[in-house]
């Protein structure tokens, strides 16, 4: 029965993804930026519902930009959870832009792409992030640079924090956790780390009992006078503390 339920959820999720692609392709050109943001947030909320994930938001998401949101990274599901809580412009690896359907959805949602294999590309992305922040956007990064196993935080990369410093924009830390909706225990079904493939992670998520995606927002921090490496260490501790509040 669980396999049949997972197949049904998968079919509905595929249909919803294609609906999102159609919206971006044919409706977005006539929509304002604010209308696009609302569409993305509503789409993400619906997708979570279709795959059996309920969102819980603690703290206060940024009401408006400019804000650089920094969060721990566990899974592909992080993107949906954060978008459903509040539309943001993610910074993602360049390869995502070429994924079928998903790439179009990510690009339509305003994703900024970085070629991680090229160190100099970080400077280009920091420039575009700063431009987006100056334009009043909420930009989100995962400073660990890759997904963790959910047991702890990986070291933070400081480079992308320079965008907030250059733009004079605040940084808001956030933490997320996935849990079994019935027991409240941490769920590793959505894990996407190491040898996990996107397909296997998706399938484990679909077969899992109903899940909670819990996003906890901390207080925004002023960027004036900050040094990015020291700030990265401080934010690491802040997000550790926020994670502890999710237990």
Kindly summarize this structure in a few lines.
The chain is α/β, with parallel strands linked by helices and 247 residues long.
Describe it for me?
Helix 1 runs antiparallel to helix 2, helix 2 crosses helix 3 (77-85) and helix 5 (121-134) crosses helix 6. The protein has eight helices and seven strands. It has helices spanning 2-27, 33-50, 77-85, 102-108, 121-134, 161-167, 198-207, 228-244; strands at residues 53-58, 67-71, 89-93, 112-114, 138-141, 171-180, 211-217. Helix content is 44%, strand content 16%. It is globular, with a radius of gyration of 17 Å. By secondary structure, the protein is of the alpha/beta class. The mean pLDDT is 94. A seven-stranded mixed beta sheet has the order 1-7-6-2-5-3-4, with helices on both faces. It has one domain: Glycerol-3-phosphate (1)-acyltransferase, CATH 3.40.1130. Helix 4 links the parallel strand 3 (89-93) and strand 4 (112-114).
Give the domain tally: 1
Count of helical stretches: 8
What is the level-2 CATH architecture name? Answer: 3-Layer(aba) Sandwich
Mean pLDDT: 94
Oligomer: single chain
Give the strand content.
Answer: 15-25%
Instruction: Report the biggest beta sheet as strand number plus sense, adding barrel if it closes.
Output: 7 strands, mixed
Which series of helices and strands comes N to C? HHEEHEHEHEHEHEH
Low-confidence parts, pLDDT < 50 over ≥5 residues?
none
What is the CATH T-level topology?
Glycerol-3-phosphate (1)-acyltransferase
Q: Helical proportion?
A: 40-55%
Overall spatial form? globular
Q: Would you report the number of β strands?
A: 7
């Amino acid at each position: 029965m669980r396999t049949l339920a997972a197949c049904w959820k998968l079919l509905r999720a595929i249909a919803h993804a294609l609906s999102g692609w159609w919206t971006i392709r044919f409706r977005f050109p006539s929509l304002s930026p604010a209308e696009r943001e609302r569409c993305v947030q509503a789409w993400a909320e619906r997708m979570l519902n279709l795959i059996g994930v309920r969102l819980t938001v603690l703290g206060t998401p940024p009401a408006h930009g400019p804000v650089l949101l920094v969060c721990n990274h566990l899974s592909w599901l992080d993107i949906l959870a954060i978008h459903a809580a509040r539309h943001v412009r993610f910074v993602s690896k360049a390869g995502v832009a070429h994924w079928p359907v998903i790439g179009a959805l990510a690009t339509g949602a305003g994703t900024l792409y970085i070629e991680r294999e090229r160190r100099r590309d970080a400077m280009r992305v920091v420039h575009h992030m700063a431009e987006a922040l100056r334009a009043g956007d909420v930009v989100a990064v995962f400073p660990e640079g890759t997904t963790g196993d959910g047991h702890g935080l990986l070291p933070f990369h400081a480079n992308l924090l320079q965008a907030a410093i250059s733009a004079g924009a605040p940084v808001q830390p956030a933490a997320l956790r996935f849990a079994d909706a019935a027991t409240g225990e941490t769920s590793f079904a959505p894990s996407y780390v190491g040898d996990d493939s996107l397909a296997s992670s998706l399938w484990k998520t679909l077969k899992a009992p109903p899940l909670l995606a819990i996003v906890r927002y901390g207080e925004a921090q002023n960027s004036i006078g900050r040094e990015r490496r020291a700030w990265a260490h401080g934010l690491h501790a802040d997000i550790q503390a926020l994670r502890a509040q999710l237990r």
